[in-house]
Amino acid sequence: MPRKSSEERKKEIWQAAKGVFLEKGYEKATMEDIIARTSLSKGGMYHYYSRTKDILFDILWFHNETYLAINIEQGIFEKEVTPEEQQELMLDTIVEKMCTTTPDRKLFAIFMAQMAHDPEMEAVFLKLEDYFLKGLCHRLGIQGDPREYPQLCFISRTINGFTLFQNLLPHPELLSERREVVRQLIRQQLQVLFSGLESAVTTASDERSDL
């Protein structure tokens, strides 16, 4: 049997860890629990990871990058579509993310719930958020620091808040049954965001004309 690559080993570890985190809870999960679900020895595992926290961080980074890649493949950030079409594509994706429960989103919700008492997790969350916002700005052609756009940050935090709601709290159907309400909430913020971008472009154009 061919020897697994480093990337394949890590994905094996991530899959095992994800199962342990979701079944036992992150705080109760141990490295031994994860090793038991892989083909690695203890020494082999510690070649890659020495803490459950680092495994969790890598899983989250991987899914964050994958989420952006999928959106790009679906044409959400294509330059050829009109602003109105782009808004609707983004709206579809955001509402689906907010109202659907998946193991990966539940794991992210568990991670967010740990931030209140773990500064290291908070720091990783902010880096993940920055990565997401910068990627979004790049695809939308937005210049500068993404945190200069309050609506963009609000949308990001709203998605995260609803992820906690949908994946950790009882009765998630309360949210999924009210998708249209969620849609209208985000639509309003997207309209404000895109309106602000159009105004910024117009202002910049006027300033160049005055030179």
From TrEMBL:
It comes from the Bacteria. Residues 30-49 bind DNA. The keyword DNA-binding applies. Keywords: DNA-binding, Transcription, Transcription regulation. SUPFAM superfamilies: Homeodomain-like. Residues 7-67 form the HTH tetR-type domain. PANTHER family: HTH-TYPE TRANSCRIPTIONAL REGULATOR YJDC (PTHR47506:SF1), TRANSCRIPTIONAL REGULATORY PROTEIN (PTHR47506). This is TetR/AcrR family transcriptional regulator. It comes from Anoxynatronum sibiricum.
